[in-house]
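Is this the right way to post structure tokens for a design question? Let me know if I should format differently. Anyway, here goes:
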């Protein structure tokens, strides 16, 4: 959808890099990505392959600190700069396509208050009371719905 100019920005809370693997270039990862790893002490970066190939807990060869994924771990807050960037992108949107979540989830509701566009479309499998906040609701699988939209 991004390649066709139908989507300008993807905002996700998933940490596995699926939008990037699908070819999206404009992605904001609210909770980071397991594909980026670094030493919190000396800031050296490590590839996912280096982490996968580690026989034990991966340590930085320069300073000996445990390498960590660039993700928000349980109990940590989402980076303020990342949230600000996401809020600005949502504020610019004329149409907002929300996929596979409830509109009253904590993170979603924080960001939705910045949306001033005219069409909020929600695609989620199961109906929920917060669906009434959307202009259009499609209660189907996200993958099937996106394939159908692309075909049209």
């Amino acid at each position: 959808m991004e390649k066709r100019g139908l989507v300008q920005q993807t905002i996700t809370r998933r940490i596995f890099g699926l939008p990037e693997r699908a070819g999206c270039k404009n992605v904001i990862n609210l909770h980071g990505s397991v594909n980026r790893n670094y030493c919190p002490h000396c800031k050296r970066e490590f590839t996912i392959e280096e982490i996968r190939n580690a026989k034990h807990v991966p340590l930085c060869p320069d300073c000996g600190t445990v390498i960590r994924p660039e993700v928000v771990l349980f109990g940590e807050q989402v980076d303020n700069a990342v949230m600000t960037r996401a809020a600005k992108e949502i504020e610019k949107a004329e149409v907002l396509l929300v996929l596979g979540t409830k509109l009253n989830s904590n993170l979603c509701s924080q960001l939705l208050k910045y949306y001033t566009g005219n069409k909020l479309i929600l695609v989620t499998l199961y109906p929920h009371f917060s669906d009434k906040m959307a202009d259009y609701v499609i209660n189907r699988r996200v993958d099937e719905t996106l394939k159908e939209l692309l075909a049209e």
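Format looks fine. Someone answered above. Worth noting: Residues 72 and 78 are 6 Å apart (CA to CA). Residues 77-151 form a domain with the Rossmann fold fold (CATH 3.40.50.1220).
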